[in-house]
Amino acid sequence: MGPRRRRVGILISGRGSNMASLIEAAQAPDYPAEIALVVSNRPGAGGLARAEAAGIPTTVVDHKLFPDRASFDAEIGQAFGKAGVDLICLAGFMRILSDEFVRTWSGRMLNIHPSLLPLFKGLHPHRQALDAGVRIHGCTVHFVVPELDSGPIVAQAAVPVLPGDDEDALAARVLAEEHRLYPLGLELVANGKARLDGARTLFAAESRTALASSEA
Ligand code: GRF
Q1: What pTM was computed for the model?
Q2: Phi/psi zone of residue 107: left (φ > 0), alpha (ψ -120 to 50 degrees), beta?
Q3: What is the dihedral of CA 17, 46, 49, 67, to 10 degrees?
Q4: Which of the residues 25, 57, 107, 143 has an alpha carbon 20 to 30 A from that of 184?
Q5: Residues assigned a catalytic role
Q6: Is any ligand 1 atom within 6 A of the Cβ of residue 17?
């Protein structure tokens, strides 16, 4: 029996394709994390059905039913606390969490952003990439800090921007890498090979092989 697996809570707002890749990865018996609960802020999120189909408990915390951000966040914190969650993954989650919530989960909350941070933070990163004319684009798994898309990086994957790419083609190429990268990033944090140390990510020496994931 190896070390106890970390209990992961996933926050979604939409179809949950990144959530689905985390659920699949956690089915491996030696994966250092188990998915304990999926929370969506939107009742109609497609990811809820995918989680339920995989036998993962789900809860809806509808932000429209809360008077302010603090009470919405507190409800989410309660749901994760009851489920014994000790690590949160944001996966296509489209709400800004309060600084207090983010600080409470400092070092224990990850996000995936579809760009090579610090480039192209915020919305429409693929459009930003095309407008900037970059030839290499990709995705980033990072610790969540109060500033949007700015936390210390855990893992990145790169994809080429090809002639004739439009936003959809580029997004699809990046998304395929996201589905490979997020389980890798969560694994590094769950097994302690990557941890938040102040404003930097600290990597254990032996995780060298998992850092650069340039092979497509
Ligand atoms: C993905 O590109 C993800 O990086 C971004 O939202 C998109 C949809 O994610 N955060 P998902 O399919 O809902 O996981």
Answers
A1: 0.94
A2: left
A3: 110
A4: 57
A5: 113
A6: yes
